[in-house]
Every structure is written in structure tokens, then in C-alpha cells.
Amino acid sequence: MADVSLASRRRAVVLLSGGLDSATVLAIAKQEQYEVSAISFRYGQRHQIELACAARIAARAGVTRHVTIDIDLSQFGGSALTAPLAVPKHTSVDEIGQEIPITYVPARNTVFLSLALAYAESIGARDLFVGVNALDYSGYPDCRPEFIQCFEQLANLGTKAGVSGDRFSIHAPLIELTKAQIIAWGIQLGVDYADTSSCYDPTATGRACGHCDACLLRLRGFAQNGFTDPVSYAD
């Protein structure tokens, strides 16, 4: 592929949590020749090791700028990711229920996308990439296609750029893929998944628990591709 100078590239903001999905989305945006900036959030989550992963991923990918925003959603509670509540653990993916789990953080993706939108408008980016997924996930309502479509409409109704005709696009390239398909795509793009952290309840040293929803779905995805997950597990 011909080299594309930074001056001629479209700018994009990638929401980068440090997990498997967001690392894959970053690689997709880079492969599509965007000039990428990344945004991460320290929101009172118990698994803040993911932020160290996000920093490594961004540095290795050569993003233009990586910012980490501090917001304390733990003030509201209501989630096992931000409050002293037990994270559900299982022995297999088959045990994951259909109801919205206690690891759901109220309105998290709405908050994150709103801040990413403000960041994008301020730097002249009109494309936002987010790693939400509506198949192999824990049933969160803000990971569905309907939510992404509605947020894109909101972005174009509620910003100076949008109402001036300089429209925003919200890209969710993983939204209809299984975890196995996401991992296969990422491997093809050269994503180093050893740099990522998906666990909801890691140990103090950062090892994954192996039994939360995120760990089980991740482990199954690697197994379905015939690979061993490169991150360290406590069990």
C-alpha cells in the first residue's frame, strides 16, 4: 500500500480501554490509514491494570496522542466493577446468564462516547472507533447496534461540527463478530494480545482470574482459533 502522509489522513479517535476488543479496533483504524488519537478512562474501575495496557498498546501503535481522562463513576456505585461487590465467576461460558449482569456500569458507554466526541471535535476528528460487541459479550445494553446508531445521530445533532454539515461517524467494526472472529482478525493485523487485559477481577499483580465473563469469553475465543491466550492467569 502506498505511503500516506499525516497531512492527508483522516483523523480518528479510538476509545482504548486496554482490552482485547479495543486493541483490535485500534489496529483496524491504523490499517484503514487513519491518523489515530486514543482516549482512555480512569473511572474508578477495580481493574485499572487495563490502563497500563492501554498505554503500551498506544505507544507501540504510534498513535498521534493518547489521553487518559479521570472521572469517578464509583461515586454512583451500582456495578461490581466500581463498587465492593462480588464479580460473578463461572466454570464455563455456558453458565453465563442472559440477564444484564452486575458488572454493567450504568451509562458507561454513553459517558465515554460523549467525552470522546468532545475530544474528537476539539482536534478536528470526525471518526470515532469503539470496540463494542453484541455477540460474545455480557449483555450490556450500550453495546448494541441500536445504541451506536442513536449515539451517532446525537453526535450530529448536538455538536457545532455536526449541525454545520461536518458530520461524525461512529465505527463499531466488531459489533456483529464473535470473540473468535475478533481474535482472528487481530492476529491477521499483528495485534500483540499479550499487551491486553480483559479480566474484570485481576489479582494485585495483574493476573487474570480466569472465571469472570470476560475471561471465559476470551479464553474460548483463543481456543476456537487454536491458540493459547498469551496473558497470565491465576487459575
What report would you give on this structure?
By secondary structure, this protein is of the alpha/beta class. The protein has a single domain (8-224), classed as HUPs (Rossmann fold, 3-Layer(aba) Sandwich), CATH 3.40.50.620. The chain contains seven helices and five strands. It has a five-stranded parallel beta sheet, with helices on both faces. The protein starts with 10 loop residues before the first strand and ends in an 11-residue tail after the last helix. Residues 1-8 have low confidence and may be disordered.
Low-confidence stretches: 1-8
* Oligomeric description of these chains: single chain
Strand order of the largest sheet: 3-2-1-4-5
Tally the helices: what do you get?
Answer: 7
CATH-wise, what's the superfamily? HUPs
The main sheet comes to: 5 strands, parallel
CATH architecture: 3-Layer(aba) Sandwich
Gross morphology: globular
**Global structural class:** alpha/beta
Radius of gyration: 17 Å
Q: What is the CA-CA span between the terminal residues?
A: 43 Å
Question: What's the domain count?
Answer: 1
What is the residue-mean pLDDT, rounded to a whole number? 94
The top-level CATH class is Alpha Beta
Q: What is the CATH topology?
A: Rossmann fold
Order of SSEs, N→C?
Answer: EHEHEHEHHEHH
Percent of residues in beta strands?
5-15%
What percent of residues adopt helix (DSSP H or I)? 25-40%
Number of distinct beta strands: 5
